[in-house]
Batch of 2 targets.
Target 1
Amino acid sequence: MANLNIDSVKERTFDAIVIGSGISGGWAAKELTGKGLKTLVLERGRDVKHIIDYPTTNKYPWEFEHRGEMPLAVREENPIVSRCYAFHEDAAHFFVKDKEHPYIQEKPFDWIRGYQVGGKSLLWARQTQRWSDFDFEGPARDGFAVDWPIRYKDIAPWYSYVEKFAGISGNKDGIPELPDGEFLPGFPLNTVENYFSKHVKSKYQNRHVISARCAHISKPEPIHLEQGRVQCQKRVLCQRGCPFGGYFSSNASTLPWAQKSGNLTLRPFSVVQSIIYDDQKGKATGVRIIDTNTKEEIEYYARIIFVNASAINTNLILLNSKSSRFPNGFGNDSGVLGKYVAFHLYTASINAEVDGFKDMTTEGRNPAGGGYIPRFRNVYKQDTNFLRGYASGFGAYRSSGSHAEGIGAGFKEALGKVELGPWYVGSHMMGETIPKESNYVKLDDTQKDAWGIPQLRISVDYDDNDEKMRTDYVEQISEMFTTAGFKNISVNKTVGKAPGLDIHEMGGARMGLDPKTSVLNKWNQVHAAPNVFVTDGACMTSTSCQNPSLTYMAFTARSVDYAVSEMNKGNL
Amino acid sequence: MDRRIALKNLALIIGGATLFPSDMLAGGKTLIQLKNITISPAQEKLLADVAETIIPKTTTPGAKDLGLHLFVLTMLDDCYGKQDQQAFITGLGELSQLIAKTSTKPFALWPAKQRETLLLGIDNGNYSPELKKFFWIAKDKTVQCYTQSKYFMTKRVVYELIPGRYLVNVPVKPPLKGASK
């Protein structure tokens, strides 16, 4: 029996454990296995194998029973996920339904989740911008949160490292606040987007309309072909999973790569209950999971642990990992764990009609989605009545439709005669929010989920800064549209929309220089438990207004490099 | 019959342009299994005739060929709320009475023009909100199913699953006069 137990423990012991297989967990898996570590990746959901498990990927519109629309019963049963822009018949199977993992909303918060191998990397909007020192120096300059323990120069080589492998398309625009990267050719701006770009450049200093940078392979390099990925085919059906591997996902890229190393063990259906802390050894020794099929509790052991469960679930795991050393949650000597949660402000959009350009159109579909307006407010100095700023998506499209009216044979014939209409433009805001102690997640004292784990209470809300920023976005973009000659400008200030639908929730286990006010150090390492690393959205000290995923990837690769070098030095 | 129903449903699911004899639609059973609403075979047949009036068979397939009314029912059953469903059923009943009042002939045997005039009259005429709602939903979903049918998306306005390209500054042909800015 004793031997059996020893064998069993041996079988459950790895060099490294990664909690989560999404965009950052996939990177942790790739980097750790690539450095020769036997790595266990724990995923709470089911397996999703590249191509094989993309059931809708090659379906035509008429092959969907409701042509994409979600049945009312599903929408009524799942009000939260139904508010997500991508929750349709072609991708609904990649979203967590409301009842599958309940949480308590102290304030309304739409928590959008993807519990499967690959997580939300299958579903993301694939926009990838670097941060700059205007972002990393933000908290120190503007006096909020805590100072980031790193600067752009620390992360820049790691941006390059992950960009080359993931495949990022974009142009070298030479904008200091949006540093250039290792780009595959950018997708072009169309006629009207290009007109607007030139207009903005001529009229405003330090405002730019550039081609959106995105994680699509516009032109494959050998490293992409080696992953089994090929050129993006401009289907723009990404949320179904891409059989070409045209966009970056854990499923298409990092996980198969990790698998090839022979060092990866992937365990789906494994909800992590907590990280095990050994008081005697003074370090984390492994994690405790619940097998979602058998409900069995199992422990796995490793020398280092990467927590990549997605921002809010990482907080949940850390908060639930209590020991005599950490009675208030793992690594929570500071008491800030779960606090200073922030997000991106997606609370306004603006559309308009364009006169002219009727001799030009587009053909095919643009994976980048169009243009991007980097943050121009409060960059070089404070120039408004609110802190920080916003980036904006910007796109133009040529409308088309038929002039069919009535019913009958003539109507039917007319439906098939599609004619081009006017061009339209649209913009949506993506604003930075200020992390605050009062925006937090914590464990409920009594209510538990299906696995016996405390339910989360989420208390996250907008503030006055957000409202002022929204007002400014509306004013500025409206003005830019007006001076560009766009007509019928229509502002949509989304009313009553809860935070969360940006799906950019961040923080709770922030990085910082001082263990008294932060959970992680400059290597994403838990101050008080050096063999545990957090490199997903939970680590974020501030939110910038750039999309965060690329930064998670870079943090992860950098952190693994540090962790393994420390292991090799015998420090971990 | 069951096998034929299964085939019909399969044809619907794959968006098929499978041709079925229209007299099948006049059978004693409905062709579609619905979860939330109940309609009679006669009502289903009338809806098929309405859809056929909106999208008639010409030199190209029409509503009955494409099973468009079955999509209307599927959408009504699955994607609409109780209030809309009830209005639709009530409106369908009112349409049946309106037809009977107008002519002793079955609707399907009316000349196309007469069928069109009756249906178009609903929108503008002095009719109940239920009948109007019925017509709007029937037309909207019939047209949606038609323009998103395999036939339409492969033969009329072609949908490309894999465009493989994104081109900008594509000149419009034939060029429009005086449109540039």
Note: The two ends of chain B are 62 Å apart (CA to CA).
Target 2
Amino acid sequence: MSAPAITKPGAAVNGPPRKDRLRAGDTKPAWLFLAPFALFYVLFLIWPTVYMVIASFFNTSIVQEGFGSFTGFGNYQEMLTRPEFWSAMWHTLQFTLYTTPPLVVLSFVFAILANRVRRGQALFRLAFFVPFILPSAAIALIWNFIYTPASGLLAVVQGWFGVEAPSPVLGTPSIAMIGIAITTVWWTIGFNFILYLAGLQDIPRELYEAAALDGASPWQQIRWITIPMLSRTTTLVILLQIIASLKIFDQVYLMTGGGPGISTEVALGLITTSAFTDFRVGAASAASVLLFIVIVIIAVLRQLIDRAQERRA
Amino acid sequence: MATTGTSSSPRRTGISAAAPPPRRVADSSKNSTRAFNVVCGVVLGVFAILWLIPSFWAIKTSLTPNSVSAVGAEEILRYGGLTFEPYANILRGGAIWDWYLASFFTSVVTTLLTVVTASMSGYALSRLQFRGRNLVFLLMLAGIMIPSQVLVVPIFQMLDAVSLLNTYWAVILPQVPYVIAVFVFKQFFDGLPKELEESARIDGAGFWRIYRSIIMPLSKPVISAMAILTFVNVWNNLLLPLFVVANPELMTIPVGLATVQGSFGQRYSDIQASSILGALPLVILFLLFQRRIVEGVAGTGLKG
Amino acid sequence: MAGVAGTQLAPGTVTFWNLFGGGDGARLQLMLEEYEQQHGGSDALQAATFAWGNPYYTKVSLATLGDKPPDVAVAHATRATNLARAGLLTEITDEMLASVGLSSADFTPKVWESTVMDGKAYAVPLDTHPFVLFYNKAVCRDAGLLDANDELVPIQGTEQWEAALTAAKEVTGAYGASVATVSETATPWRFFQTLYSQRNGSTPFLSDGGTELTFDEALVADTLAYMQSLTASGLMPQATDYAGSQTLMFTGQSAFYLQGEWEITTAQSVEGLEFGMVPVPTLFDQPACQADSHAFVLPTMERSPEQLELAMGFVKSMLDQSLAWAEGGHVPAYLPALRSPEYAAMEPQSDYAEAADYAVYDAPAWYSGSGSNFENIVGAQIGLVMQGIASPEEAIASMRSQLGTYARTADPLS
């Protein structure tokens, strides 16, 4: 099946231990083996989660000792009634809507094309995949320069096509997020590209051969074999993209700083600003909890869809 | 930190972008198929070139004097010369050596800690029977879903409480629990034959010796895949080091690059040179371990 | 392995963080080199420059919380008091000042007072940087706005201002004056605060440490409406960014340009540009202009007497170079420099030095000060008004709603 490496959870999530391997004496060494990782797990995943929840009910400040005064649901009430919070959530959604379709469609097309071409594989991987493993900061420096108002590469190319005085991409509220989205598509398409390529490997060649014998054109083969066979990968790619989009921070921080005004501010930007600029750990924690819940819901959804597809397969 | 996949089958090593197109097809459609494939190649080639433009633009700019790049894109295009001055500026400036050191140290130490602790846990889950195993399993599964980026504020508070802010440890320790690695290791171990271990057990070997001298030596592919992934993740992380490290001499590459823009002003060539120097180690890593990286990414969902 | 075992610098090295980019950065570099020369080479100093505004103050705060702050940092006076209230700054005592031959009497009283909190000083001021009016001499000459000495004829009141702009517009064919309205929050705020503060009955924007919004709504609306009328009538551009507003004046498409005095360095670098600088004219009832001060602060940390001496020595060295700094437009806060004949002879710097006397600082609040959330919120709305995108009433409503969140929030600093 498609992207087997990721979507074959059955192997990892196998059920209760088989009786024949049960040995009573294993318990102590087992915990010793688990202890080092468990220590990091509890310290840096579980405890921060607990701390976040607790702090969200207090006026915790970064520059004050302890949790500060109790405020009940005050921080949540503030966030949920605050226009900036909703605007940050909206921008996060906006980013998802702008990036997901091109990332899915383009990577799908690239993978199908690459799968049919015998030469130039190294070039394709270099072009599409390498940006994905580079630091966001390097990507942002490259694209900020391309977007430089008036004298940047984009403005000059726009000039060649007769666009007089184009609006500065990152300086115009209505299009700044599009600029960030384009950069993101360029940066991360390699990930989906690789997933789709892996999915293509799993389609039995016999299917194509049989179709070809029946006189199916290449296009018909793609339409009736490839696309349906890759539907699981597509679901996976979309869900991973949504989860990654909810956690967007780097590109916005590096390219617009949330601006102009707050027109590209996203959830993690609001959280870090509340905590590290306003010193309001309590308020930031409440916003974190809300974002946390949204992400976990989608992550659980992803697991459920995965299982359902696994059963159907 | 970036854990969005669930599990992987590390034994599948056949992921290669170069899948030969169907070969034995009916003669009648052979020609149209060939023509179609050529069109595919051309279209993809155009996209590939389009995709390479930003990188080439950065390289071209970095080989142009600051005085030229300050004027604008057209001037850069027109400039026919070649200068390494921007690279010299960055390397001589010194800050980038601090960033390299910080990035290498934090990435290597995190990778070591992650690979050792995650493989030990994976081994316990794969081979040992104990009470609470199911609970541990569930907790680990839950751990995959925890978005660690969202925890940056409480993690900052914790590190502050134990006076670890502004040290490499502040960057290293929170990134060690890469939960997905545990599953990847477990699954790989599940696939190893048990005979060797059983004979070792009969000879009186303990679990630790089996893990160290039988399991680990057999697991080189999965170890290297996980090591590279962790390394890339830690190297590229911006969010955590941005806030837990404030001093310029402790900054990692991404944080350093992020702060460069503000203080470099109009020195565009220097900025592009710094960006390329910051990306270079990963490009080299990619060229050396292409297959492992591609497999690892496809296998675990590095995206985060 | 600095990050593992703690930073080890050669003893005698001063670490210094600042937020000076552009022309300020270049000028500072010269001053730092001077310090290094006097103190035995480049080992004497380790300086780092960050992008100004919130990111800078975040770095300073987090470094101090993480016990690795720089020995000395630059802060705006309006931000220094907040850093001090958060417990991030060392008090500057009389003894510390005396150890390098300084006393509080060496500074402009108004500026010194702006850094004092509960009777304790937390910063050593370097300058005042008022919002001023640049003018293109060639354009103004043609428009008949200069006197016999080639200086701008003083402008008083809105009528004269509009007349001058109209005359200038006829010469330039484009605009009379320009000010940044796009991709900017600080500049629109500075322009607004200057005009608003000139009016009788203007109240501080915030009071009680920011818990109350106390601006005079009618007066704010009227001032915004006036600013909008200037752009709507075409005397000033509706949409231009920081660099664009400069270019308009530099290239003679506008006679006047409103910005902080530090842009003198940029203006001087424009070939063939003849320009002058004066305080923003009093369009309303009293002279006033928005301003802030750069100051040196000592972040909280364990310091040996030697380290303290080094830090103060560095501050003193910078103050001693106040005249070099003043070349970059800033009005010195250090009286020996401000009162020196050299400064009096500096043109056009001394022409607007008086603006420092009626400078208006941002109202104190934990979320206000230069480059703060307050300026970002209010400035963004003012920019929209000047662009003609929002009405004054809409802008005020949006400011109220956004600032309200902060005003209702318990002060996280104390």
Note: Confidence is low (pLDDT under 50) at residues 1-22 of chain A.
